[in-house]
Design brief:
Layout: H1 37-42, E1 73-76, H2 84-100, E2 104-109, H3 122-139, E3 142-150, E4 160-167, E5 176-184, H4 190-199, H5 217-222, E6 229-235, E7 241-242, H6 250-256, E8 259-265, H7 273-282, E9 287-293, H8 302-311, E10 316-321, H9 328-343, E11 350-354, H10 357-369, E12 373-378, H11 387-396, H12 403-411, E13 415-424, E14 428-437, E15 439-441, E16 445-449, E17 457-460, E18 464-466, E19 469-470, E20 473-475, E21 479-483, E22 497-499, E23 507-519, E24 524-525, E25 529-534, E26 537-546, E27 551-552, E28 557-564, E29 569-570, E30 576-581, E31 584-595
Parallel strand pairs: 1-2, 5-8, 5-9, 9-10, 10-12, 11-12
Antiparallel strand pairs: 2-4, 3-4, 6-7, 6-8, 13-14, 13-22, 14-21, 15-20, 16-17, 16-22, 18-19, 18-21, 23-28, 23-29, 23-31, 24-27, 25-26, 25-30, 26-28, 30-31
Helix pairs in contact: 2-3, 10-11
The structure holds guanosine-5'-triphosphate.
Amino acid sequence: MDARVSDLFGSGNGHGSGSQGVASNVKPGNGYGVAPKKACTKNHKKTKSRFSRNFKPSNNTPYLPPEAEEGNIEYKLKLVNPTQYRFEHLATQMKWRLQEGRGEAVYQIGVEDNGMLVGLSEDDMRASLKTLHRLAEKIGADITVLREREVDYDSDVSRKIAEVLIRKVPDDQQFLDLRVAVLGNVDSGKSTLLGVLTQGELDNGRGRARLNLFRHLHEIQTGRTSSISFEILGFNSKGEVVNYSESRTAEEICESASKMITFIDLAGHHKYLKTTIFGLTSYCPDFAMLVVSANTGIAGTTREHLGLAMALKVPIFIVISKVDLCTRATVERTVRQLERVLKQPGCNKVPMVVGSTDDAVTAAQQFAQSPNITPIFTLSSVSGESLDLLKVFFNIIPPLSNSKEQEELMQQLTEFQVDEIYTVPEVGTVVGGTLYSGICREGDHLVVGPTDSGQFHKLTIGSIQRNRSACRVLRAGQAATLALGNFDRSLLRKGMVMVSPEMDPTICWMFEAEIVLLFHAKTFHKGFQVTVHIGNVRQTATVEAVYGKEELRTGEKAVVLFKFIKHPEYLKEGAKVLFREGVTKGIGHVTKLRPIAQYQPSQSEDE
Ligand SMILES: Nc1nc2c(ncn2[C@@H]2O[C@H](COP(=O)(O)OP(=O)(O)OP(=O)(O)O)[C@@H](O)[C@H]2O)c(=O)[nH]1
């Protein structure tokens, strides 16, 4: 992690006039990534890169990057009247591309394998799209034409290329699934935007839309989100929104959706920073959406939230809300302010303002290909202006991990992270959390721990629910609630893991981490106490040693030995670490574990 990300956590001085330096020379929206003409014609060799996403061709750059062997993008010059043999081959290929994209694939029609935008006549395009429909029908997939465009060639006849989204929910899955953490300063309009997206009714500017998102009485009274809440927005196979406007229950939404976006609504107020960090580290979001109010610009926790998402390597996009309250000039000022911060050397992001449906399609694709691209939406939850562009983006945006990574995680032993514990009448103890690896079914026997003495208890999984609907099989990466029957709730705590009994989890009181100090008022040294976040682990730890240094200053790196103060934890080498105490903040990763067998805490330490 670039230590310059610490700039985002500092006092905030000097950022407004920040540098214009862009480390990458990538230019969004005008053919970014498009190989130069010469290089492209020579380079017929297929590249290996995954998700070699398509790019917005401008009139004078008639090339896409060469088609990649892997990933979910397929280029087809034309698909006119294929023989039966070729048709079968094309169907198999489509299945494979869908598998690569975990249920989604993009076909570029009228494009050669080397990326050349040849284009098709009206008739050939119609015939090709017809073949594509037949192919999709054969394998039970749905297709949506994302956009068609003319390619600018010297010929008199108009020639077009088309970009088509194919979607098929894998047979053993209910829907495609994406998680988006929602960040932003207090009152920036996060809950309102979620209310509008998920309930389908615009806000009145006085908080109507957010009302049904609140979970606790004190939140209704103060109008603040303090707990983490989940909201769902579905899309059906035609790319239309499925939300509470037509469906009464979450079950109904789940039934008719082929793609589901789960929003993790995190609190904006600084007081709830702990919850915000927990949401980012524990719920493994695919993306973060940072909401910024157009009339206040970068204010309060905005910069810090941006820094946290970047430190945790969660790809981020930005929504500037409340544009109905300001003049165009004010909105533009806020956009420019954000662009400046995003381009700072510590961020190295490439902002991309989304102004049309075409931009939203390009943004979704480029964002998936390079998390440095940062789409910026400007919208209003009251007038509804540009809300559609955000919906187009959500419909197209693919999950970041590919099918192979997902497959590998599913092959591993079961590990479920316990984030919430409830007692439900007539059901008993229920835990909420995320399945990190493996798969989990009703009736599975797992062990849960570690306890204060480093032990694990046996348990059996009862029913499983996702988004309040029953689920037979839970797969790596999915969040769910699991019923544990009459298992004693007092033996559980947040931060525990439920793992396969065959796993031999490493439990430790102490661990080493290579860290960079992002912000500290004075210095950071031995004896200092901080709250450590590692995945769903959240506990106070003491700095036992700072190797090779007496003390650390802001921006400096070191290997540090931490010791938990309450109980040992299950950790993994390489896991991301984030710690904080007041204004002190740091990030890094676990480099070495000191397993419990090597370190037995004394009675007084193990309280
Ligand atoms: N005019 C206008 N008002 C908006 C818009 N979005 C939100 N608001 C209003 O702004 C106020 C704050 O919105 P919230 O959605 O509660 O803000 P939040 O970011 O969720 O705040 P926390 O939950 O405290 O972090 C409410 O009164 C909303 O009605 C918008 O696009 N236009």
